[in-house]
Amino acid sequence: MSIWVKECLQQIDDMVLAMKDAGMDIVRYEKAEGMSNSELTELEQQLGVTLPEKLQELLQSCRHLTYLWDFPDSVMEPDTLPAMSGEMGWSSIEVGWFEDPTDLECVGELDDRRYLSFSSSGAGNPVMLDIKNDFSVVCFLHEEGEIVTLAPNLEAFIRTIIQLYGAWIWEWTDVTNEHGIDLKCEALQQWQTWMTRFLSISLEAATSLEELIEYTLYHGIELEKVQQAYEAYDRFDIFKAWYDRMVCDPSHFSYWTKMMGATAKKGAADWVRALWEPDMFDMYLNGEAPFVQTEDELRSIRARLSYDALPEKEALDHIFQDLELQASKYNQKIDGFDANAQLAKFHSQRVISWMKNWVRNPIDGWDSLFTSSKPTVAILMEWLDESEICEKVAVNALCMMLKKDALPIMNEMDSEALQTKLVHIQDKAILRTYKRKIEEIIEQLPY
Predict the structure, then answer these.
(1) What pLDDT digit, counting tens, does each position of 377-394 carry?
(2) Which of 93, 177, 220, 302, CA to CA, is 20 to 30 A from 229?
(3) 217 C-beta neighbours (distance < 10 Å), count
């Protein structure tokens, strides 16, 4: 194994471990053994070319490497960072001559033996060696229809991507110069600074509320140990800390309120109640500097906050009344998708009781809402005995629950009663697809 490849593979191993230990979501990391001399010779014969030395050394050491990562869900990604995804790698399977499927003129000349690909991004942009330019590494941006230089050679490219922590920048043209990726450009400097802080900051070192919030900005709130850390602080103080950030930076209103609800909970209750007042709602929507772009967005945020901060009955009553008010105001039906977006997180059977009077279509979000609201066998039987629409909602919900392995608890008697009812519905059904759907449910019921 060549020295440079050995160093790079070790650096990638160390990088993946460090990112994993710091809480990055490692989607996939896999490596394969190197190619044998005979396999390499066979590949060269297929391509009709002797592979460049650096590519030979890479493939003989590791024929395939894939590293995919993603930010934790509730990390605050600064707006100043370049748009990116976590993906790096190469594969012997992808080694081949590049042919632009749309317009060969974009590569500068009609020559199908100039660019030798060895990798591609998730967006389908091939990474290639430019045979006629000292084997520099280039990338074909298919949406722009142009080729951009990423590095003077393969080794430099891999070492550079390691310094970028395996990040694939969506707009390489914004962070490159005539020599390739410019690690000194402002955007990539900010990315490296952000990642350095991400890897170095620790929960154990967060001994104040401000430090804990900073940790949360980098690592999110999903882990139970992070949520438990907030238990040491007064709920109202937590709310005030997030609220102050929201006032200073209203452009991230959705993020601040998400963190506020998840960590302050009842500490935010009074402010959340105020959001149900028309004047306050209008201020956040139509003020001189609106906090959100649309009414639906603000309603969704308000419902999420109500779930986090208010007693369930109070929160649901507010949402029910608002959905009904909007329907009557505009003389229209309640939209099932809107209802699902605001109510699904409650997982409450009160929602099922409420929606019976409003559902007008067995799909369009209503079946999903019914499923997430934890129906019992008794509730399923009740809906199967109701109107045709209620029946179809319940049938669709049974399909969803079976796919998720989330059927309500039932004994043998419950299962038999449910099967009997479904057989009766199947017998009177007209559409074959509906009959088949019910048959599949019956076949999968327990007992």
Answers:
(1) 999 999 999 999 999 999
(2) 302
(3) 20
Q: Where are the alpha helices (H) located in 360-431, listed in sequence order?
A: 366-372, 377-384, 388-403, 412-428
Q: How far is CA 413 from CA 376, 416, 420, 444, in A?
A: 14, 5, 11, 16
Distance CA 196, CA 200 (A): 6
The model carries a pTM of: 0.82
201-205: long-range contacts, CB 8 A cutoff, minimum separation 24: 203/229
Residue 324, judged by CB atoms within 10 A of its CB (0-12, 13-18, 19+), counts as middle
Q: Which two tokens stand for residue 303?
A: 């419902």
The pair of structure tokens assigned to 429 is 């059904």
Tell me, letter by letter, the H, E, C secondary structure of 98-112: CCCCCCHHHHCCCCC
The residue count of the chain comes to 447
Token pair, residue 411, equals 């004994």
**Residue range 158-190, pLDDT digits in tens:** 999 999 999 999 999 999 999 999 999 999 999
Residues contacting residue 180 through CB under 8 Å, at least 6 positions apart: 136, 137, 149, 150, 151, 152, 156, 157, 160
131 contacts 114 by C-beta, under 8 angstroms:
yes
CA 149, 153, 156, 159 dihedral sign is positive
Q: Which two tokens stand for residue 413?
A: 């008697």
Q: Are 120 and 151 a contacting pair, CB within 8 Å?
A: no
From the list 337, 334, 336, the residue with the least C-alpha distance to 326 is: 334
Residue with more model confidence, 375 or 104: 375
**Amino acid (1-letter code) at residue 124:** G
- Which residue in the block uniquely carries the two structure tokens 């993603």? 70
Longest dimension (CA), the chain: 76
| 291 contacts 299 by C-beta, under 8 angstroms | no
Please compute Rg for the chain using Cα positions. 28
Inter-residue contact 221 to 265 (CB < 8 Å): no
Q: How many CA atoms lie within 13 A of 17 on its CB side?
A: 6
Listed residue (89, 81, 85, 87) closest to 185, CA to CA: 81
Amino acid at 44: E
Those residues with Cβ within 8 angstroms of residue 351's Cβ, 6 or more apart along the chain or in another chain: 316, 343, 369, 373
Report how far residue 201's alpha carbon sits from residue 163's, in angstroms, rounded to the nearest whole number: 19
Q: 305, 272 in Cβ contact below 8 A?
A: yes
Residues ≥6 apart with Cβ < 8 Å to 246: 252, 253, 256, 257, 260, 291
Torsion (CA) 276, 280, 282, 287 in degrees, nearest 10 = -150
Helix, strand or coil, per DSSP, at residue 249: coil
137's enclosing H/E stretch is: strand 136-141
